[in-house]
Amino acid sequence: MPKYTVKITPGKRAEACTCKMDQQRYTVEAESKDEAMTIAGNRWYDAECPNKQPAECSHDREDIIAECSYIVQEV
Fold it and tell me: Is residue 65 a contact partner of residue 18, using CB atoms and an 8 Å limit?
């Protein structure tokens, strides 16, 4: 299975939901670039977003992950 490096830059929804706003890089094994983005996005969310989000966070997990910017490169 190919390996991809995925660089994630969080978006405004992530900030509203008190996720850590640092750019993160993940190396994942995936069948495609799209799958690599999905795997990395979920890893990022689990690691960088708090379990208990503030009341002003009206976004769900998928919205927060989808709004991030991704740069994907095959390694």
Answer: no
